[in-house]
Design brief:
375 residues, alpha+beta, paralog of FGE (formylglycine-generating enzyme), four-stranded antiparallel sheet, four-stranded mixed sheet, 21% helix, globular, disordered C terminus, binds calcium ion
Length: 375
Protein backbone atom coordinates (compact mmCIF):
# COMPACT_ATOMS: atom_id res chain seq x y z
CA UNK A 1 0.00 0.00 0.00
CA UNK A 2 2.84 2.30 -0.85
CA UNK A 3 3.19 5.41 -2.90
CA UNK A 4 5.91 6.35 -5.32
CA UNK A 5 6.31 9.20 -7.69
CA UNK A 6 7.39 9.46 -11.26
CA UNK A 7 8.26 12.87 -12.53
CA UNK A 8 5.29 14.72 -13.89
CA UNK A 9 5.79 16.37 -17.20
CA UNK A 10 4.53 19.83 -17.94
CA UNK A 11 1.53 19.71 -20.19
CA UNK A 12 0.01 22.90 -21.39
CA UNK A 13 -3.22 22.73 -23.24
CA UNK A 14 -3.41 24.94 -26.26
CA UNK A 15 -5.81 27.77 -25.74
CA UNK A 16 -8.67 28.79 -27.93
CA UNK A 17 -8.36 32.11 -29.67
CA UNK A 18 -9.24 34.92 -27.33
CA UNK A 19 -12.40 36.78 -27.93
CA UNK A 20 -12.26 40.58 -28.08
CA UNK A 21 -13.62 40.95 -24.57
CA UNK A 22 -10.96 38.64 -23.25
CA UNK A 23 -8.25 40.44 -25.20
CA UNK A 24 -9.40 43.66 -23.63
CA UNK A 25 -9.13 42.03 -20.25
CA UNK A 26 -5.58 41.04 -21.04
CA UNK A 27 -4.70 44.64 -21.63
CA UNK A 28 -6.42 45.61 -18.43
CA UNK A 29 -4.54 42.82 -16.71
CA UNK A 30 -1.29 44.52 -17.48
CA UNK A 31 -2.50 47.59 -15.68
CA UNK A 32 -3.66 45.49 -12.79
CA UNK A 33 -0.29 43.83 -12.66
CA UNK A 34 1.49 47.16 -12.53
CA UNK A 35 -0.78 48.35 -9.78
CA UNK A 36 -0.30 45.21 -7.79
CA UNK A 37 3.43 45.17 -8.31
CA UNK A 38 3.66 48.66 -6.90
CA UNK A 39 1.61 47.57 -3.94
CA UNK A 40 3.72 44.51 -3.34
CA UNK A 41 6.93 46.46 -3.52
CA UNK A 42 5.51 49.06 -1.21
CA UNK A 43 4.44 46.41 1.21
CA UNK A 44 7.88 44.86 1.09
CA UNK A 45 9.45 48.18 1.93
CA UNK A 46 6.97 48.87 4.66
CA UNK A 47 6.75 45.47 6.24
CA UNK A 48 9.42 43.16 5.02
CA UNK A 49 12.57 45.18 4.85
CA UNK A 50 12.05 46.80 8.16
CA UNK A 51 14.74 47.07 10.73
CA UNK A 52 13.18 44.28 12.70
CA UNK A 53 15.71 41.52 13.12
CA UNK A 54 14.24 39.42 15.87
CA UNK A 55 13.14 35.92 15.05
CA UNK A 56 9.38 35.49 15.45
CA UNK A 57 8.25 33.50 18.46
CA UNK A 58 8.70 29.86 17.90
CA UNK A 59 5.62 27.89 17.00
CA UNK A 60 5.33 24.22 16.38
CA UNK A 61 5.99 23.25 12.81
CA UNK A 62 3.39 20.97 11.33
CA UNK A 63 5.20 17.92 10.08
CA UNK A 64 7.12 16.87 13.18
CA UNK A 65 4.42 17.85 15.63
CA UNK A 66 1.23 16.50 14.24
CA UNK A 67 2.11 13.79 11.81
CA UNK A 68 3.68 10.43 11.88
CA UNK A 69 7.17 10.61 10.54
CA UNK A 70 8.23 8.07 7.96
CA UNK A 71 9.34 4.95 9.77
CA UNK A 72 13.03 4.27 9.55
CA UNK A 73 13.94 1.48 7.21
CA UNK A 74 14.69 -1.73 9.02
CA UNK A 75 17.89 -2.12 7.07
CA UNK A 76 20.15 0.56 5.66
CA UNK A 77 18.95 1.68 2.30
CA UNK A 78 19.39 4.59 -0.02
CA UNK A 79 15.74 4.50 -0.97
CA UNK A 80 13.65 6.69 1.30
CA UNK A 81 10.19 5.60 2.25
CA UNK A 82 7.03 7.47 3.07
CA UNK A 83 3.88 6.46 4.85
CA UNK A 84 0.34 7.67 4.24
CA UNK A 85 -0.51 8.73 7.77
CA UNK A 86 -4.20 8.02 7.45
CA UNK A 87 -3.67 4.43 6.44
CA UNK A 88 -1.82 1.65 8.21
CA UNK A 89 1.53 0.87 6.67
CA UNK A 90 1.88 -2.34 4.77
CA UNK A 91 3.28 -4.85 7.20
CA UNK A 92 3.39 -8.09 5.39
CA UNK A 93 4.07 -9.15 1.89
CA UNK A 94 4.70 -7.00 -1.14
CA UNK A 95 2.57 -3.98 -1.86
CA UNK A 96 -0.40 -4.70 -4.06
CA UNK A 97 -2.33 -2.27 -6.16
CA UNK A 98 -1.87 1.31 -4.93
CA UNK A 99 -4.64 2.47 -2.60
CA UNK A 100 -7.15 4.98 -3.76
CA UNK A 101 -6.45 8.16 -1.87
CA UNK A 102 -9.34 10.03 -0.32
CA UNK A 103 -9.95 13.31 1.46
CA UNK A 104 -8.11 13.36 4.75
CA UNK A 105 -5.20 11.29 3.53
CA UNK A 106 -1.78 12.71 4.12
CA UNK A 107 1.56 11.56 2.84
CA UNK A 108 5.09 12.55 3.73
CA UNK A 109 7.24 13.34 0.74
CA UNK A 110 10.54 11.54 1.28
CA UNK A 111 12.73 14.05 -0.52
CA UNK A 112 12.06 16.87 1.92
CA UNK A 113 9.77 15.57 4.64
CA UNK A 114 6.88 17.74 3.47
CA UNK A 115 3.43 16.61 4.57
CA UNK A 116 1.13 16.51 1.57
CA UNK A 117 -2.66 16.42 1.76
CA UNK A 118 -4.87 14.73 -0.80
CA UNK A 119 -7.27 16.90 -2.75
CA UNK A 120 -10.08 14.81 -4.25
CA UNK A 121 -11.07 15.73 -7.76
CA UNK A 122 -14.17 17.80 -8.30
CA UNK A 123 -15.74 20.86 -9.83
CA UNK A 124 -15.75 24.38 -8.42
CA UNK A 125 -16.42 27.93 -9.48
CA UNK A 126 -13.07 29.64 -10.03
CA UNK A 127 -12.82 33.38 -9.64
CA UNK A 128 -15.33 35.82 -8.24
CA UNK A 129 -18.89 36.72 -9.13
CA UNK A 130 -19.94 40.34 -9.50
CA UNK A 131 -21.53 40.19 -6.05
CA UNK A 132 -18.32 38.84 -4.58
CA UNK A 133 -16.30 41.63 -6.18
CA UNK A 134 -18.70 44.14 -4.63
CA UNK A 135 -18.10 42.49 -1.29
CA UNK A 136 -14.37 42.97 -1.78
CA UNK A 137 -14.94 46.69 -2.15
CA UNK A 138 -16.67 46.65 1.22
CA UNK A 139 -13.59 44.93 2.63
CA UNK A 140 -11.42 47.71 1.22
CA UNK A 141 -13.59 50.25 2.99
CA UNK A 142 -13.39 48.39 6.26
CA UNK A 143 -9.68 47.56 6.07
CA UNK A 144 -8.01 50.37 4.10
CA UNK A 145 -4.30 50.03 3.53
CA UNK A 146 -1.99 52.97 3.73
CA UNK A 147 -1.05 52.66 0.07
CA UNK A 148 -4.60 53.10 -1.15
CA UNK A 149 -4.33 50.16 -3.54
CA UNK A 150 -7.33 48.23 -2.28
CA UNK A 151 -9.45 49.27 -5.24
CA UNK A 152 -11.56 47.63 -7.90
CA UNK A 153 -8.83 47.43 -10.53
CA UNK A 154 -6.79 45.21 -8.27
CA UNK A 155 -9.49 42.54 -8.28
CA UNK A 156 -11.17 42.67 -11.68
CA UNK A 157 -8.95 39.88 -12.95
CA UNK A 158 -10.96 37.47 -10.77
CA UNK A 159 -13.88 37.84 -13.16
CA UNK A 160 -15.58 36.16 -14.89
CA UNK A 161 -16.22 33.33 -12.51
CA UNK A 162 -16.17 30.02 -14.39
CA UNK A 163 -16.53 26.30 -13.72
CA UNK A 164 -13.34 24.27 -13.42
CA UNK A 165 -13.12 20.51 -13.03
CA UNK A 166 -9.94 18.93 -11.69
CA UNK A 167 -8.59 15.44 -11.25
CA UNK A 168 -7.43 14.52 -7.76
CA UNK A 169 -3.97 15.65 -6.69
CA UNK A 170 -1.72 16.05 -3.69
CA UNK A 171 -0.64 19.44 -2.40
CA UNK A 172 1.80 20.49 0.29
CA UNK A 173 0.09 21.10 3.57
CA UNK A 174 2.14 24.24 4.14
CA UNK A 175 4.54 26.53 2.36
CA UNK A 176 7.99 25.00 1.75
CA UNK A 177 10.33 25.92 4.59
CA UNK A 178 13.88 27.20 4.58
CA UNK A 179 15.09 23.91 6.05
CA UNK A 180 13.41 21.95 3.27
CA UNK A 181 14.67 24.29 0.59
CA UNK A 182 18.21 23.98 1.97
CA UNK A 183 18.16 20.28 1.10
CA UNK A 184 17.67 21.16 -2.53
CA UNK A 185 20.45 23.74 -2.36
CA UNK A 186 22.77 21.19 -0.78
CA UNK A 187 21.83 18.75 -3.52
CA UNK A 188 22.92 21.27 -6.13
CA UNK A 189 19.47 21.52 -7.69
CA UNK A 190 18.44 24.91 -6.28
CA UNK A 191 19.99 28.32 -5.84
CA UNK A 192 20.02 29.73 -2.32
CA UNK A 193 17.40 32.32 -1.49
CA UNK A 194 18.72 35.85 -1.24
CA UNK A 195 17.25 35.86 2.26
CA UNK A 196 19.11 32.78 3.45
CA UNK A 197 20.79 33.41 6.76
CA UNK A 198 18.78 36.52 7.61
CA UNK A 199 17.40 36.19 11.10
CA UNK A 200 13.91 37.43 10.31
CA UNK A 201 13.45 35.32 7.18
CA UNK A 202 15.92 32.44 7.18
CA UNK A 203 14.71 30.40 10.15
CA UNK A 204 14.34 26.69 9.52
CA UNK A 205 10.57 26.60 10.03
CA UNK A 206 9.83 29.84 8.23
CA UNK A 207 8.60 29.74 4.65
CA UNK A 208 11.42 30.07 2.16
CA UNK A 209 10.91 33.39 0.37
CA UNK A 210 12.77 35.72 -1.91
CA UNK A 211 12.92 33.09 -4.63
CA UNK A 212 11.94 33.86 -8.24
CA UNK A 213 9.39 31.68 -10.01
CA UNK A 214 11.96 29.48 -11.74
CA UNK A 215 13.68 28.66 -8.46
CA UNK A 216 10.36 27.64 -6.95
CA UNK A 217 9.63 25.49 -9.98
CA UNK A 218 13.09 23.93 -9.77
CA UNK A 219 12.50 23.02 -6.16
CA UNK A 220 9.21 21.29 -6.84
CA UNK A 221 10.80 19.41 -9.72
CA UNK A 222 13.63 18.30 -7.44
CA UNK A 223 11.14 17.26 -4.77
CA UNK A 224 9.24 15.06 -7.23
CA UNK A 225 6.34 17.30 -8.10
CA UNK A 226 5.61 20.65 -9.67
CA UNK A 227 4.09 23.95 -8.69
CA UNK A 228 0.30 23.70 -8.37
CA UNK A 229 -1.63 25.09 -11.26
CA UNK A 230 -3.54 28.25 -10.45
CA UNK A 231 -6.78 26.25 -10.55
CA UNK A 232 -5.39 23.56 -8.25
CA UNK A 233 -4.27 26.18 -5.78
CA UNK A 234 -7.65 27.91 -5.70
CA UNK A 235 -9.55 24.63 -5.48
CA UNK A 236 -7.39 23.40 -2.58
CA UNK A 237 -8.06 26.71 -0.83
CA UNK A 238 -11.82 27.09 -1.34
CA UNK A 239 -13.26 23.75 -2.44
CA UNK A 240 -16.50 23.07 -4.24
CA UNK A 241 -18.41 25.23 -1.77
CA UNK A 242 -16.41 28.21 -2.95
CA UNK A 243 -15.22 29.60 0.35
CA UNK A 244 -14.04 33.20 0.31
CA UNK A 245 -11.30 32.30 2.79
CA UNK A 246 -9.90 28.81 3.31
CA UNK A 247 -11.86 28.37 6.56
CA UNK A 248 -15.11 30.00 5.50
CA UNK A 249 -16.65 33.15 4.12
CA UNK A 250 -15.77 35.64 6.85
CA UNK A 251 -12.36 37.04 7.67
CA UNK A 252 -10.93 35.62 10.89
CA UNK A 253 -7.72 36.67 12.60
CA UNK A 254 -7.18 33.04 13.63
CA UNK A 255 -6.89 31.98 10.01
CA UNK A 256 -3.34 33.04 9.32
CA UNK A 257 -0.54 35.57 9.54
CA UNK A 258 -1.84 38.91 8.25
CA UNK A 259 -1.08 42.61 8.45
CA UNK A 260 -1.79 43.14 12.10
CA UNK A 261 -2.12 46.92 12.33
CA UNK A 262 -4.72 47.13 9.59
CA UNK A 263 -6.68 43.99 10.40
CA UNK A 264 -6.68 44.56 14.13
CA UNK A 265 -5.30 41.07 14.51
CA UNK A 266 -2.59 40.33 17.02
CA UNK A 267 -1.29 37.13 15.53
CA UNK A 268 2.17 37.53 17.02
CA UNK A 269 4.04 37.80 13.74
CA UNK A 270 4.85 41.17 12.14
CA UNK A 271 6.75 39.22 9.50
CA UNK A 272 6.83 35.51 8.54
CA UNK A 273 5.51 32.90 10.94
CA UNK A 274 6.66 29.29 11.14
CA UNK A 275 4.60 27.29 8.69
CA UNK A 276 1.53 25.61 10.15
CA UNK A 277 1.20 28.10 12.99
CA UNK A 278 -2.51 28.72 12.32
CA UNK A 279 -4.51 25.47 12.38
CA UNK A 280 -7.69 27.56 12.42
CA UNK A 281 -6.92 28.53 8.85
CA UNK A 282 -7.14 24.99 7.49
CA UNK A 283 -8.90 24.67 4.18
CA UNK A 284 -11.47 21.96 3.39
CA UNK A 285 -8.64 19.56 2.47
CA UNK A 286 -6.52 20.53 5.50
CA UNK A 287 -4.05 22.76 3.68
CA UNK A 288 -2.61 25.51 5.91
CA UNK A 289 -1.19 28.99 5.32
CA UNK A 290 -3.14 29.39 2.10
CA UNK A 291 -4.28 32.77 3.37
CA UNK A 292 -1.42 34.95 4.51
CA UNK A 293 2.10 34.23 5.73
CA UNK A 294 3.95 34.10 2.38
CA UNK A 295 2.45 34.74 -1.03
CA UNK A 296 2.78 31.62 -3.17
CA UNK A 297 3.85 31.13 -6.76
CA UNK A 298 1.66 28.92 -8.90
CA UNK A 299 2.69 27.30 -12.14
CA UNK A 300 0.59 29.21 -14.66
CA UNK A 301 1.43 32.21 -16.74
CA UNK A 302 -1.07 35.00 -16.26
CA UNK A 303 -3.99 35.63 -18.55
CA UNK A 304 -7.49 36.98 -18.11
CA UNK A 305 -10.14 34.42 -17.27
CA UNK A 306 -12.46 33.01 -19.90
CA UNK A 307 -16.09 32.41 -18.97
CA UNK A 308 -15.90 28.92 -20.48
CA UNK A 309 -15.88 25.82 -18.31
CA UNK A 310 -12.47 24.18 -18.17
CA UNK A 311 -11.01 20.85 -17.20
CA UNK A 312 -7.53 20.64 -15.62
CA UNK A 313 -6.46 24.05 -16.95
CA UNK A 314 -2.75 24.80 -16.94
CA UNK A 315 -2.76 28.40 -18.13
CA UNK A 316 -1.62 29.95 -21.39
CA UNK A 317 1.38 28.84 -23.39
CA UNK A 318 2.94 32.27 -23.40
CA UNK A 319 2.90 35.40 -21.33
CA UNK A 320 5.12 37.76 -19.42
CA UNK A 321 3.83 37.33 -15.90
CA UNK A 322 3.41 34.56 -13.37
CA UNK A 323 0.86 34.57 -10.59
CA UNK A 324 0.98 34.85 -6.83
CA UNK A 325 -1.77 33.58 -4.57
CA UNK A 326 -2.96 33.87 -1.00
CA UNK A 327 -1.63 37.19 0.26
CA UNK A 328 1.04 37.56 2.90
CA UNK A 329 1.84 38.83 6.36
CA UNK A 330 1.78 42.33 4.95
CA UNK A 331 -1.68 42.26 3.38
CA UNK A 332 -5.26 43.00 4.27
CA UNK A 333 -8.39 40.80 4.17
CA UNK A 334 -9.20 41.75 0.58
CA UNK A 335 -5.89 40.34 -0.62
CA UNK A 336 -5.82 37.11 1.38
CA UNK A 337 -9.00 35.69 -0.17
CA UNK A 338 -8.93 32.39 -2.03
CA UNK A 339 -9.73 34.06 -5.35
CA UNK A 340 -7.15 36.86 -5.23
CA UNK A 341 -4.75 36.84 -8.20
CA UNK A 342 -1.50 38.76 -8.21
CA UNK A 343 0.40 38.79 -11.50
CA UNK A 344 4.06 39.75 -11.27
CA UNK A 345 7.21 39.29 -13.35
CA UNK A 346 8.62 35.78 -12.92
CA UNK A 347 12.03 37.14 -11.97
CA UNK A 348 10.60 38.90 -8.92
CA UNK A 349 12.30 37.80 -5.72
CA UNK A 350 10.09 39.59 -3.24
CA UNK A 351 10.75 38.82 0.38
CA UNK A 352 7.14 37.90 1.09
CA UNK A 353 6.84 35.36 -1.72
CA UNK A 354 7.24 31.64 -1.20
CA UNK A 355 5.54 28.59 -2.64
CA UNK A 356 4.23 25.06 -2.11
CA UNK A 357 4.28 22.08 -4.47
CA UNK A 358 1.74 19.63 -5.87
CA UNK A 359 1.80 16.14 -7.31
CA UNK A 360 -0.88 14.68 -9.58
CA UNK A 361 -2.62 11.73 -7.94
CA UNK A 362 -1.67 9.32 -10.66
CA UNK A 363 2.00 9.98 -9.98
CA UNK A 364 1.78 8.53 -6.50
CA UNK A 365 1.40 4.83 -6.98
CA UNK A 366 3.51 3.08 -4.40
CA UNK A 367 5.33 3.65 -1.16
CA UNK A 368 8.41 2.19 -2.77
CA UNK A 369 9.65 5.67 -3.38
CA UNK A 370 12.76 5.92 -5.46
CA UNK A 371 14.43 9.27 -6.22
CA UNK A 372 15.49 7.81 -9.52
CA UNK A 373 11.88 7.42 -10.54
CA UNK A 374 11.27 11.09 -9.99
CA UNK A 375 13.69 12.48 -12.47
CA1 LIG B 1 0.97 39.23 11.33
CA1 LIG C 1 0.64 31.46 2.10
Amino acid sequence: MNHSISIPGRHRASLPALRPAVAARLTAGGLVACTLAVLLLAAACGHGESTTTSVPPTAMAVPAATHTSPPPASTPTTVPTGTPTSQPPANDGPAEAPPSASQGDTWIRPTDGMVMVYVPGGTFQMGSSDAQIEAVMALCDRYPDEYGKCKLDAFESESPQHAVTLEGFWIDRTEVTNAQYARCVADGACRASRLAGQAAYGGDDLPVAGVPWQDAANYCDWAGGRLPTEAEWEYAARGSEGRIYPWGDKFDCAGGNFWDSVTGCDDGYPEPAPVGSFPGGASWCSALDMAGNAWEWVGDLYEAYSPDAQRNPTGPDSGSQRILRGGSWGYTPAFVRTATRYPVPPAADYLAVGFRCAIPADRVTSLAFSPDSMR
